[in-house]
Amino acid sequence: MARRRDSPDYRRTWALIALNGSLDEATVADVEREIRLLNLPESRLIVEVSDLHFLDDYGVDVLVLLAHHMRQHGGLMALVDTCGHVRRALGDSGLDDLLPLFATMAEAMRSLNDGDGDGDSDGGDDDGEGDG
Fold first, then answer.
1. STAS domain spans which residues (predicted)?
2. Which of 34, 57, 62, 100 has its CA 20 to 30 A from that of 130?
């Protein structure tokens, strides 16, 4: 039986990007430039967005670009939003499958360890293990 882990699988490359302030038309060019420099084949990327105070359509687009970049290189990405600001902004976007969003770092790590990267936007327990 496979066991879920709360710590990263260190056989893979892991990276963390922490965004804060605004991710909008004025700031996305810098973030896009950094994304294009990422060379993380088959890696796991966690983007901590809890400290983003503003996210507009340009910001959502750059997160989608980052998710595509990771998948093109065999990797996976998850967002962590402990405050719920980004969760609310993305809630109406219909991008749940492309931008998996988690309430805690541990949930994101578990999902990326399992290799599916599927977010649980309502914070519920849907792991199928019947533990709750």
1. 16-112
2. 100
Which residue bears the tokens 């519920």? 124
pLDDT tens by residue, 90-119 = 877 778 778 999 999 999 999 998 765 565
Rounded Cα gap, residues 40 and 43, in angstroms: 5
Tell me the average pLDDT across 73-100: 86
* Alpha carbons 29 and 37: distance in angstroms, whole number: 13
**φ/ψ of residue 35, rounded to 5:** -60, -45
Report pLDDT digits (tens) over 17-43. 999 999 999 999 998 888 777 777 888
Q: Please calculate the CA angle 40-100-94 and round it to the nearest 5 degrees.
A: 125
Name, in order, each residue with C-beta under 8 angstroms of 117's C-beta and a sequence gap of 6 or more. Answer: 76, 77, 78, 100, 111
Across residues 73-96, what is the average pLDDT?
A: 86
- Fold exhibited by the domain 14-114: Transcription Regulator spoIIAA (3.30.750)
Tokens 């809890």 — which residue?
A: 50
Length of the chain: 132
